[in-house]
Amino acid sequence: MSSAAAEPDFDVIVVGGGPAGSVTAYLLAQQGLSVVLIERGEAPGAKNLSGGVLYGRVLDEVFPGFAQSAPVERRITRHVTTFLTGDSSVSLDYAGGPLAEPVNAVTVLRARFDPWLAERAEEAGVFLMPGVRVDSLLREDTPAGPQVVGVRAGDDELRARVVVAADGVNSFLARSIGLRPQPPTHHLAVGVKAVVSLPRTVIEDRFAVSGDQGAAHAIVGDCTLGIGGGGFLYTNTESLSVGVVLRLDDLVKHGRTAAEVFEHYLSHPVLEPYLRGGEIVEYGSHLVAEGGLEMLGQIVTGGMVVVGEAAGLTINSGLTVRGMDLAIGSAVAAAKGIGEAIAAQDVTATGLAAYRRHLDESFVVKDLRTYARAPKFLERPRMYGAYGELAAGLFRDVFRLDGSPRKHLAAVARDSFRRSAVSVRDLVSDGWAGVRAL
Amino acid sequence: MKIVVAYKWAPNPQDADVAADGSVDLGRAKWAVSEYDPVALELARQLADATGGEVIGLTVGAAGIDTPLARKAALSRGLDRLVLVADDALDGADGTRVAAVLAAAVRGIGDVDVVLAGDSSVDVAAGQVALTLAGTLGWLGLAAVSAVRVADAGTAGLVVERELPAGTAVVSVPTPVVLAATADAVVPRVAGMKDILAAAKKPVEVLSLAELSVAEPGAVLTTLATAKPGGAERTARIFDGSDAAAAATELVGALRQSGAL
């Protein structure tokens, strides 16, 4: 170590004030470590586009009962999957008590939710540093190899034992030291989203929900003009989040712009009645990594770990688009691993590998593995002759993410068959054909 | 020299929802140091560095203005310490009331030579508080200040430059004085990581509104009506662009005719 490496300013520097960064910082501070959370926006959430569906079981483990105290919009008790053609639609509507208790999925608006998470971190003793854009990583050569020892922003340098890159899908930090090569475009999708404000009662009537309950719609087919991807529509308290996710390579191949597809989607006769009379209050776009396990690159190096979307952690299984729960899952694993590495006084890549081990053992990597092999099963139209009990059982198991490792859809389907009262040979043969197609 | 910077922790109207009837909802707005106030903070720091003085931040408002984030946002911009009056009784207080509370706090701080303020607040923008404060204190007050420095050796007070419609005036000013800076008097610093770290260690004093002797306002204003600003009158002529050259000629002609060229 050079003499300049004297005393670090903090045990840990976390870069990025989204769910991954705030939860990592919170859990590290809870272990008694000194933590600074650097956010480039003037406040956490300031840079974030609208919101999303948060599968909340993992966050409930970090903040028990968070759905009661955090600014969540609605609890999703109704999942609707719709296949569109130019003039018709086929929907599968799963509404059920099992999704409501305990809280399975909630909608959040990140401009409200992220500041709440950051405040919890600040309460736990994290030093919140908004309005700072990190320019580069500080690296030093040590006997153990190159080591990240801090960050630089403008003229200032800040040193720490460990840096956590939680800087989002484009992760400049991870890329700057070659941890994540530029992803191929077929692993990237562009999401275009709008938040449409509507009165509370109108939303409840149109989506057949009441109180703090909400609905999430996944839409595939004509909504994207044949481009690989899908649409979504879900309810906030007094607004709807509506958007499309389009595979970047396919969008380019079709010679369309994302805005064009989005306009088509909003005016589709099946969508329009939901949105009628609403006013667009936010609009924007975001890159989404959707390569699953393939996108999860090297997430540990000497003195640094990568969490959340920066680590490539998103799953688009066709029916559920997940990012925030995986981000929080990675934060939990990172906080454990970093705590152990610092306690063992080994923050080299070897010491920090504890994070990767905890991540591998968590639902995060297990789900990535599951969906890596079978990502699009449920987009297959043949599933839509669905069979009452069987479909309900299957979809309940698909949508209920309770923090336990996900099973292969094949296994989920088999379980559903067994539970189903409709145990007939032809059902098995029909269903099995679909399952084998995975 | 003891310098106080009176600044506002205010919602940013960029995030406002404006309804069709012109009513403004700032419920979703993010709060920050009011847009023009960093100019006053910077002028104060530069003046203090030139004289070896102290810069004290002063802000008043509802209880919600006192958060760790709000404290650091101000203290990282060159202040030595911070004085706050945060009381929900001040929620929505008008400029006269705010000036009265600021005056009481300035007296409480004691021996203040200069109070610096921004041109106006970003949310209300009436531009009255600084000069009302001067009046309440019984001090000289000057708006439109674009530069300030200490007077040459042997002379008391400050030399102040003002940007007035007739041109720039350079005036010799005795202290104590209240100065309101122009929006572009100086380029304010951007707080760095070390500034923000240091900010968390600087002293903060919270004054209780009840313990400040704030004079009751002589008059209470009642808003009778509000209306959105009328749109400017426009001729709204549209030129047919199918022949670009002809359209350009027409456009130039129209601009000449209206005296714009």
Q: Can you give a write-up of this model?
A:
The complex is a heterodimer of chains A (438) and B (261). With 438 residues, chain A is an alpha+beta fold. Chain A folds into 3 domains: 3-64 and 111-184 and 292-372, FAD/NAD(P)-binding domain, CATH 3.50.50; 74-104 and 185-289, D-Amino Acid Oxidase, Chain A, domain 2, CATH 3.30.9; 377-436, no CATH class. Helix content of chain A is 34%, strand content 29%. Chain A is built from 15 helices and 19 strands. In chain A, strands 3, 4, 5, 6, 11, 12, 13, 14 and 15 form a 9-stranded mixed beta sheet that branches. In chain A, strands 1, 2, 7, 8, 9, 10, 16 and 17 form an 8-stranded mixed beta sheet that branches. In chain A, helix 13 crosses helix 14 (409-419). Chain A is globular, with a radius of gyration of 22 Å. The model of chain A is unreliable at 374-393 and 421-438 (pLDDT under 50). Chain B has 261 residues and is of the alpha/beta class. Chain B folds into 2 domains: 2-206, HUPs (Rossmann fold, 3-Layer(aba) Sandwich), CATH 3.40.50.620; 231-261. In chain B, 26% of the residues lie in helices and 25% in strands. Chain B has 6 helices and 13 strands. Chain B has a 9-stranded mixed beta sheet, sandwiched between helices. In chain B, strands 2-5 form a two-stranded antiparallel sheet. The longest helix of chain B has 15 residues, at 37-51. Chain B starts with a strand and ends with a helix. The mean pLDDT of chain B is 91. The A-B interface holds A 9, 36, 38, 42-43, 46, 111, 122, 127-132, 153-158, 281 and B 17, 28, 30, 32, 68-69, 72-73, 190-197, 200.
How are the elements arranged and paired?
The complex is a heterodimer of chains A (438) and B (261).
Chain A: E1 10-15, H1 19-30, E2 35-39, E3 51-55, H2 57-62, H3 66-69, E4 72-84, E5 89-95, E6 105-109, H4 110-123, E7 127-130, E8 136-142, E9 145-153, E10 156-165, H5 172-176, E11 188-197, H6 200-207, E12 213-221, E13 229-235, E14 239-247, H7 248-253, H8 258-266, H9 272-275, E15 279-289, E16 300-301, E17 304-306, E18 315-316, E19 321-322, H10 324-343, H11 349-361, H12 363-373, H13 388-399, H14 409-419, H15 425-436
Parallel strand pairs in A: 1-2, 1-10, 2-7, 4-12, 10-17
Antiparallel strand pairs in A: 3-6, 4-5, 4-6, 8-9, 9-10, 11-14, 11-15, 12-13, 13-14, 16-17, 18-19
Helix pairs in contact in A: 1-4, 1-10, 10-11, 13-14, 14-15
Chain B: E1 2-6, E2 9-11, E3 17-18, E4 24-25, E5 31-33, H1 37-51, E6 54-61, H2 68-75, E7 81-86, H3 95-109, E8 114-117, H4 129-137, E9 140-150, E10 158-164, E11 167-173, E12 177-181, H5 193-199, E13 204-206, H6 244-257
Parallel strand pairs in B: 1-6, 1-8, 6-7, 7-13, 8-12, 9-12
Antiparallel strand pairs in B: 2-5, 3-4, 9-10, 10-11
Helix pairs in contact in B: 2-5, 3-4
